[in-house]
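Forum: Protein Structure Q&A
Topic: Joint prediction for protein chains with partners

I've read a bunch of threads here and the consensus seems to be that you should model interacting components together rather than docking separate models afterwards. I'd like to see that in practice. Below is the full input, 226 residues plus whatever partners are listed. Could one of the regulars post the assembled result?
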Amino acid sequence: GIQVEQSPPDLILQEGANSTLRCNFSDSVNNLQWFHQNPWGQLINLFYIPSGTKQNGRLSATTVATERYSLLYISSSQTTDSGVYFCAAGGGYSTLTFGKGTMLLVSP
Amino acid sequence: DTGVSQDPRHKITKRGQNVTFRCDPISEHNRLYWYRQTLGQGPEFLTYFQNEAQLEKSRLLSDRFSAERPKGSFSTLEIQRTEQGDSAMYLCASSTPPGTGADTGELFFGEGSRLTVL
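Posted by a regular:
Agreed with the consensus. Here's the joint model:
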């Protein structure tokens, strides 16, 4: 099955800083999503992005499918951005394989 | 659209007991997924349904785990004879299958059911 690797595993930022989270996947994909897991455990959809670039406020994502990676950009980080960010990829529209996540801590 | 709903949110049980979790998907979604997440790990796929048909169940962790979706609406995940290693967050998600228009197969998750086995 597809392997998904995320980096860095942990990231500490000062409020206002920018960051880039990376997701590498081992095979071609039809589905790639970024999630933010809140402190209560719910996975919040950030982007559905099997290819191309999308932006939503201070967050944007780019997937280069031919090179098998995706990037999540967070600009002007806020303390509320803290949490775990997951990338998940799938090749057959039936299942998603998750990476281990990047734990982000934004300090005031 | 009320989102994916899971019940109970928390369950504490003694080893050896059976537990059942319920998931109500987004109403127009015909695909429903179950995942398990242990501490410090990403969610791990267990099984999924399209309508009432269970299309993939080989990833269920053991024969103590079973899932149903009898009328193609809500689903239940049952764990029999629970063990301490079953302690985890059980997550449900739903999606529409890919097709025309906005049907991308994008997954939407519920808030999860946290199981603690003593």
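The mean pLDDT of chain A is 94.
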